[in-house]
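=== Structural record ===
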Amino acid sequence: MEVSNKKYNNIYFIGIGGIGMSNLARYFLLKGANVGGYDRSMTDLTRTLVEEGALVHYEDDATLIPDEFTDKSNTLIVFTPAIPSTHKELNYFKDKGFTVMKRAQLLGEITKLSDAICIAGTHGKTTVSSMVAHLFKQSQIDCNAFLGGILRNYNSNLLLSEESNFTIVEADEYDRSFHNLQPHIAIITSADPDHLDIYGSEEAYKQSFEKFTSLIRPNGHLILKKGAKLTPEVIESVNVWSYSESEGDFHANNIRIGNGEVLFDFVSPKGIIKDISLGVPVKINIENSIAAMAAAELSGATSNEIKTAMSSFMGVKRRFEFHLKRQDIVYIDDYAHHPEEIRAAIISIKALYPDKKLTAIFQPHLFSRTKDFAVEFAESLSLADTVILLDIYPAREEPIEGVSSQIILDKITSPDKHLVDKHDLLDLIIKKQPELVVTFGAGDIDRMVQQIKDILSDNI
């Protein structure tokens, strides 16, 4: 790997098991580099990396770093912002004078020599970037892609091409990481406030997105969600396009939802593609697909390629992922962890199953996010018929006094609401006998998905 005109044969990842880090690790393994790293727990992703040749350990201990990664002249250290400043291995490498960079910086190095399609937004970016990658892969233009989720069509978060000069990446706003990118096409799906523990104010968060628009290359494109409340800072030669479900330069018309299907006509400045069928037929994906199809059309994909690819898109693991789809019971798991994501998801699910009562199970993510958006979480969750809350997943944070899932529960207006420990969740599900269930959260609730599925299958 060449970074700033220096070549490295060894790449060491601190936080190698993260969804965004693991695809970079796999990329360098496939390029023939020595790859190693630390993560705090063994997962399917880390097991796959080990099977493919990476050296991974799970204890923060500098003495466990393999010898090949102790040569600072030939080793690049990559870390994720989620790693605390007290991390022993990270500080070992810094103290020894190794070249250390954030994941976003490395991604910027990879993408700066290609035509980068960068998808940003508080929510929707993983689904949209995965749709874009699938559209490009299924057309003559092809792509490389570094995704923030496992794309089910390929069972991978990394797609490679020997020929294409397009690279598709998620542009992560956390810690202003997306300021390292140089997009040819930028998509912004939303700019609803988040990560206020980092940004401090809604205005600073908005300004960060506006700064991102200034990084688009000459003669590039900005595809901006209509109503995003941003003032783009693009240079004069950049084309600015609007999109939404119902209006804008790119939008949908003649929408038909029913019988488990979503059909619509895609309207763009080039014309109309009739009868687009969504492979993942939920209402929120109409808007997601509009953004993705806009990027594909602007990059040269044909109408037939776009139409065929959208119907074959299988979705991303933990993004509206159906685990049960029977007449008597439907179970969906979703990564949503922001109030607007949850609101949009619940509306989509209820539109798809208007005759079923919805039970929403939510594990809040981060004490700071819970504190900042307790009212908004409660308003969104109140759209469900039954709400079950779990305790907050702290991730990188220490507890905040007075902040717990209770402050959300108190504000939920649905009369059937509960706060339970994870260990009691399965018993409550059996007691409730739900017919339509969705689990929400970015913490470790995904580790309970199989158990929930089994309980629903066996007891409903």
About this structure: The two ends are 53 Å apart (CA to CA). The mean pLDDT is 92. The longest helix spans residues 284-298. The longest strand covers residues 144-151.
